[in-house]
Amino acid sequence: MFAAVILAIAVTDIAVSLNRLLEAGARVRWDWLAPMAALVAFLKIVTQWWTWFFARPLAGGLTFEMYVGVLVGAVLLFLLAAASLPSEADGPVIDLAAYYQRVRRRYWWLFAAHWLVSNAVDIWIQMQVSGARLDLLSPAYLVLPVAVSLALLRWRWWHALCLATFTALYLAQFFGKGLGQ
């Protein structure tokens, strides 16, 4: 429950930041990379909660250390969400392209850190609680090198392509699945 509260605060941060941008109106120089980063963070939060909902039968087997790992992942996800849009809408002009360039390294390092922590904890929990086996051939392992490349490279086309791809992947991950499935 505590981890879900952290995710709710992360969604709130995105919504408040977006509201500040909308209130700033004509002072905002809109660019789509920062809002797309916010969308990816939002979808990452939603899919994280959805995953936790389906993993609730495993919750009884969690140790304190595992739960701390879950909380660390939730905090990293909050920091990712908070970095996606400017928190303040002060000043004569808010340039979202410049903002994204300024925070892109932090955003993608947080993305990579969250992916590492959440996947390591997930594997740990599944192996310890339900006896699952490690699958080293999953295409999901490509996420980490892509996130690192986004932290290191400034190519706008690469950022646009990857943000669009992550959006599609997060939308497709649970598309058509109900909470009871």
Strand portion = under 5%
Q: pLDDT below 50 for ≥5 consecutive residues: which ranges?
A: none
Residue share in helices? over 70%
What is the β-strand count?
A: 2
How are the strands of the biggest sheet laid out side by side? Answer: 1-2
How many H/I helical runs? 6
Give the ordered list of helices and strands: HEHHEHHH
Which descriptor suits the 3D outline? Answer: globular
- Main sheet overview: 2 strands, parallel
Instruction: Provide the residue-averaged pLDDT.
Output: 89
Number of domains in the coordinates? 1
* CA gyration radius, whole angstroms: 17 Å
Q: State the secondary-structure class.
A: mainly alpha
Quick description:
The protein has 181 residues and is mainly alpha-helical. It contains 6 helices and 2 strands.
Give your account of this protein's structure:
- The longest helix is centred in the middle third of the chain and has 34 residues, at 96-129.
- The protein has one domain (2-173).
- The chain has a two-stranded parallel sheet with strand order 1-2.
- The mean pLDDT is 89.
- With 181 residues, the protein is mostly helical.
- The protein contains six helices and two strands.
- 71% of the residues lie in helices and 2% in strands.
- It has helices at 2-24, 33-54, 64-84, 96-129, 143-152, 156-173, and strands at 28-29, 94-95.
Question: Layout of SSEs?
Answer:
Elements: H1 2-24, E1 28-29, H2 33-54, H3 64-84, E2 94-95, H4 96-129, H5 143-152, H6 156-173
Parallel strand pairs: 1-2
Helix pairs in contact: 1-2, 1-3, 2-3, 2-4, 2-6, 3-4, 4-5
